[in-house]
Design goal:
two-stranded antiparallel ribbon, globular, 2 domains
Amino acid sequence: MKPEDREEIVKILHEIEVELRVGKANAYAGKTNNDTLGNFKRNAERWGMTKYQTWGIYFGKHIDTIEQAIKENPETPTDPTEGLLGRINDARVYLEILACMLTEDDLITIPGLYPEIHVEHGDISKANINGTAPQADVTYE
């Protein structure tokens, strides 16, 4: 596949992903608490797990379906229920949800998310590529 073809596919996938994310986020947030991660938190509490474990179960469902389609038909994998494109888009959204959870708990930093943060030593974007806290003196305005 040519690089420009791949970029076009990724662009279209991103557009689909945004529609999917926005549409479902409101439903999962609930009208009373307006927390887009509320679904994970409520089910974690209900089942005695963490929100990350709940996320893992939901995410695993999509990955398992993709893997099963490949296992059952390695040459032309398909998913007769939601289709592989739907599963791929769901998996992409779930990875974003995980990043939101980790950000909410201050376990990762999204570069550029909080422009009021200033790094005196080091590069915050490089320090957080692997999800670790920056090794720098950070000040907040």
